[in-house]
Specification:
The complex is a heterotrimer of chains A (349), B (272) and C (273).
Chain A lengths: L2 E7 L4 E7 L4 E5 L6 H9 L6 E6 L2 E5 L6 E2 L9 E2 L11 H11 L4 H14 L15 H14 L5 E4 L9 H13 L4 E4 L3 H7 L2 E6 L2 E7 H6 L4 H7 L2 E7 L4 E2 L5 E2 L2 E2 L8 E6 L4 E4 L8 E14 L2 E6 L2 E5 L1 H7 L6 E7 L4 E4 L1
Helix pairs in contact in A: 2-3, 2-4, 3-4, 4-5
Chain B lengths: L1 H23 L4 H13 L8 E8 L3 H14 L3 E8 L1 H9 L6 E3 L3 H9 L3 E11 L1 E5 L20 E4 L4 H13 L7 E3 L2 H9 L5 E5 H7 L4 E3 L9 E8 L5 H12 L1 H9 L6
Chain C lengths: L13 H24 L2 H8 L2 H34 L5 H13 L2 H12 L6 H6 L8 H27 L2 H8 L4 H12 L1 H17 L2 H6 L10 H11 L1 H28 L9
Helix pairs in contact in C: 1-13, 2-13, 3-7, 3-10, 3-12, 4-7, 5-7, 7-10, 8-9, 10-13, 12-13
Classes of the chains: A alpha+beta (349), B alpha/beta (272), C mainly alpha (273).
Chain lengths: 349, 272, 273
């Protein structure tokens, strides 16, 4: 009873394979334009890939092999979609919105109403039943939209950045709600927020340029990111290159020394990962092993908690405001980022 | 510069005289017109010049276009602009101040509207007559042979509405002959009636003889004796506000004169 | 109450108001001139004459029928044009909108050669015992022909503005396409549909050229109010002016009443974000 997907869409450079267990939730992370929404559109049947196959709980959603041409319409797929905007039907009350799925499935109006009331109560929106969408706040509307998606009894719930349009007060509430209702369900959630991945998903998939660049249990991906994007989410610096005796050598010839994983072989692709807090900033070159010292040009300075985050050469360093003032840092300056080799983890890409 | 002006003054006097003559000889305006025409055209001494606008009933389109062309050719330096429309439309336009020099109506009723409003110089001259004729598609699908045939059941007959001249004539013939027609449509213009016949929508239509002639072989005309019960008379006159009354009078003279008679009778018009 | 909102910043330069006022006068002045021409003591007898009432009744009946026809034909056309891209779509749109710019008399001629006795379809219809020319059906056909683009344009605009996000959501919730159409699409664009229907009705009411060319003119059968006005003008200017005013009043009433409705209707302001 798994969900399996293989899909290729050449026009968007999209090529993804994934597999979901019966009660598994995965989070899809990735930069804008990576193909996250394309993935959901293909699964829900709103977009047709060039080739591929999808099977949900034994039912073939589509099979576009050369000799076969199976394509089921969106309404037969059992894949409810919850988008960034609630998209509640403006002409229907909250109750009728939630009852829409059951009604479409052929339930009597009283049965559909019953189901709708149940799900409205599940999302703590029972008192909003008679309201029109225009009379709901963003958070309330999104809660009703969750109820509407669940009332359709989907085999696979698709969530496309459900928290993105909410204000900072409404988002945590909906996140807690989703954690409760997604328990024991199969769902795919697209998010920009690492917190969503940590709280709601069992696994994460990082999508970059239409391809999966990284996948694995959420914690593992965050602790040992292999892609620059995942490292960014985890708040870490990542340098990719080829493993050598000295460490990792980048394409530009920069060598990063660090603590090496025992499994690494020479010449294989590897990444060097370190926290911004492990980086010290100097105005002149520092010598002395085992240290890494890179000349970099400052692109930006920004407050980060009680620290100042220095962005330079695609890396970042966290230093105290006092240190920043002492050094007189301004964008455009060339400084040296210095990191102890012991603070750098090197592992396969 | 002084030469033409003096000439103009002379012509003005001549025009006024002509108008006065026409006014006196109300019964024979044609005669007065002819006299003036001979004076202008034959002798050639008082040269005509300038431009006039002639408002003429739509049914005069082909004849007046020809007459105006001939007139311009004979009198170099003159320009005649023609404006064709339904007589009542033209009356409305003239009443509202449209710059017309000559008005030729398809019936006396519309001309009377202008003479009553004192917008006409002198008395109008009757220059042509027109009578109704039956128009049928070339194949004559309903086998129409006489006026009485039009009242046969099943005949799709199209006529003019009683409010317009050709409809009024139709009504007059109906009354005079004691026939009751049951048309499928009462159109507001002859053109619309003819259109329905040429397109084959209607089995027959009642229009003027001249319209049947104009339509060529797209329709077949069937004359009927009863048509003399409603003879339509076409009057022509100079509009009071005309700025070039001598030229207007000269053109009217051409229309009412022998040349006009020929062109008009070729087109099917009768003489009043 | 509402006037206070006018004190906010509009960003319109003052001279725009002057030109706007000139534009308004340009439209309103002829109406005023017409009202001034009305023979008031005779007004009621003129508009309640048998021929006037017959023409008005016929106009209202045929306009209602043609509006219904516009909805039946126009809704699917607008949906196809707005929603599903296909080769030749731009061309189809251009042709559907053609009657908007075509002189009505051209439409009448085209209809004549289609539904007339000798026409493309008319011949077969005639054999089947159906005669369209000179019938009230012809009036409805002519009105539908000229009014259809108004409905299609309004509705296609509304459909495009509404987007298909709601339809996509409805489909993933398990609604089959006809359910989506009935329960989501149509209710969403109802204001646009209503506006289009009103415009179609108004256009039908004013239809003249195509009717005259194609349907003919006979009291109680094909002589609608505009044709009656045109005919009355030949002999009785007072009657023509009185009937014109009646037509203006009916049109203003229909358009005015219907355009108020969407504001208090079902779709809230944010519906078409």
């Amino acid at each position: 009873m798994t969900f399996e997907l293989d899909a290729t869409l050449a026009a968007r450079g999209f090529e993804v394979s994934l597999r979901l267990g019966p009660a598994e939730t995965i989070a899809i992370l990735g930069p804008n334009g990576a193909g996250k929404s394309t993935l959901l559109s293909i699964i829900s049947g709103l977009l047709r890939p060039d080739a591929g196959k999808a099977v949900l709980g034994g039912r073939v959603l589509f099979d576009l092999a050369a000799d076969r041409h199976v394509w089921s319409a969106p309404h037969t797929r059992g894949t409810a979609l919850l988008a960034q905007e609630a998209l509640l039907f403006p002409h229907l009350s909250a109750l009728d919105n939630v009852a829409f799925g059951p009604r479409s499935a052929g339930a009597s109006s009283s049965a559909a109403r019953e189901t709708a009331l149940h799900w409205l109560a599940e999302v703590d929106a029972g008192d909003l039943a008679s309201r029109r969408p225009g009379q709901l706040s963003g958070g309330q509307a999104q809660r009703v939209a969750v109820a509407r998606a669940l009332a359709a009894d989907p085999e696979l719930l698709l969530l496309d950045e459900p928290m993105a349009a909410l204000d900072i007060h409404a988002a945590p509430l909906l996140r807690r709600l989703l954690k409760r209702v997604l328990a024991g369900r199969r769902a795919i959630i697209i998010t920009h927020d690492i917190l969503d991945a940590l709280m709601l998903a069992d696994r994460v998939i990082v999508l970059e340029d239409g391809r999966i660049s990284e996948a694995g249990p959420t914690r593992e991906v965050l602790e040992r990111p292999r892609s620059r994007f995942a490292a960014g989410l985890a708040g870490l610096n990542l340098v990719a290159g080829t493993v050598s005796d000295a460490g990792v050598t980048t394409a530009q010839g920069m060598v990063v020394a660090g603590h090496q994983d025992g499994t690494l072989g020479r010449g294989q692709e590897g990444v060097a990962v370190f926290a911004p807090s492990a980086v010290s900033v100097f105005l002149t070159e520092e010598h002395g092993s085992p240290r890494n010292s890179f000349p970099v040009k400052i692109t930006d300075l920004e407050p980060h908690g009680d620290q100042i985050r220095v962005h330079a050469g695609g890396l970042s360093a966290d230093i105290t405001p006092a240190a920043s003032a002492d050094l007189g840092l301004t964008p455009g300056m060339t400084v040296y980022f210095v990191i102890k080799a012991a603070a750098i983890a090197i592992y396969p890409a | 510069m002084s030469m033409p002006r003096r000439l103009g003054t002379a012509l003005l006097v001549a025009g006024a005289l002509t108008a006065a003559l026409a006014g006196c000889a109300a019964g024979t305006p044609g005669a007065a017109g002819t006299a003036s025409s001979t004076g202008a055209g034959a002798s050639g001494t008082p040269k005509l010049s300038g431009a006039i606008t002639v408002f003429a009933a739509a049914s005069l389109k082909s004849t007046f276009t020809q007459l105006a062309g001939d007139f311009e050719a004979k009198n170099p330096g003159t320009k005649i602009t023609l404006n064709f429309a339904g007589s009542s439309d033209l009356v409305t336009q003239i009443t509202q101040g449209a710059p017309a020099d000559v008005f030729a109506s398809a019936d006396t009723k519309n001309m009377t509207k202008l003479t009553d409003a004192k917008l006409i110089d002198g008395a109008p001259a009757n220059f042509a007559t027109n009578v109704l004729e039956i128009a049928v598609p070339p194949s004559n699908p309903a086998s129409i042979g006489s006026f009485a045939d039009l009242a046969k059941p099943g005949v799709k007959l199209v006529v003019c509405a009683p409010q317009v001249p050709c409809g009024a004539a139709t009504e007059t013939v109906e009354k005079a002959t004691g026939t009751t027609l049951a048309p499928v449509s009462e159109e507001s213009s002859v053109t619309d009636v003819l259109g329905k016949v040429t397109s084959g929508e209607a089995d027959a239509g009642l229009v003027y003889v001249t319209d049947v002639k104009t339509a060529g072989d797209k329709v077949r005309g069937i004359p009927f004796a009863e048509s003399d019960q409603a003879v339509n008379t076409y009057p022509i006159a100079t509009v009071g506000t005309s700025q070039n009354k001598e030229l207007a009078a000269a053109f009217i003279a051409t229309v009412t004169g022998s040349e006009g008679k020929k062109v008009l009778s070729d087109a099917g018009f009768g003489t009043p | 109450m509402n006037r206070r909102s006018g004190t906010g910043y509009t960003g319109i330069p003052p001279w725009i108001y002057a030109i706007a006022a000139a534009g308004a006068v340009f439209v309103l002045l002829p109406l005023v001139a017409m009202v001034a021409k009305v023979n008031w003591p005779q007004f009621i007898p003129l508009i309640t004459s048998e021929s006037s009432l017959t023409a008005l009744g016929l106009s209202l009946r045929t306009s209602t029928a043609s509006t219904a026809a516009c909805i039946v034909l126009g809704v699917p056309l607008a949906l196809v044009l707005a929603r599903s891209p296909f080769p030749g779509q731009r061309l189809l749109r251009a042709f559907v909108l053609l009657p908007l710019v075509l002189p009505p008399v051209v439409g009448g001629i085209a209809l004549l050669y289609t539904f007339g006795r000798q026409g493309l379809l008319g011949k077969s219809l005639e054999l089947a015992g159906i005669q369209i020319a000179f019938s009230t059906t012809a009036v409805v056909l002519a009105q539908t022909f000229v009014a259809l683009p108004f409905l299609v344009v309004s509705l296609e605009g509304a459909l495009r503005t509404a987007g298909n996000k709601y339809e996509a959501v409805a489909a993933t919730l398990g609604a089959r396409p006809s359910t989506v159409l009935r329960r989501v699409t149509i209710p969403l664009v109802l204001p646009g549909l209503a506006a289009g229907a009103v415009l179609s009705f108004a256009r039908s009411l004013g239809e003249f050229g195509a009717t005259l060319t194609f349907a003919g003119s006979l009291q109680g059968v094909t002589r609608t109010l505009p044709l009656e006005i045109y005919l009355q003008r030949e002999t009785d200017a007072d009657a023509a002016v009185a009937l014109s005013l009646l037509l203006v009043a009916v049109a203003v009433a229909v358009v005015g009443l219907s355009y108020r409705r969407p504001r208090i209707g079902v779709a809230p302001e944010g519906a078409f974000r």
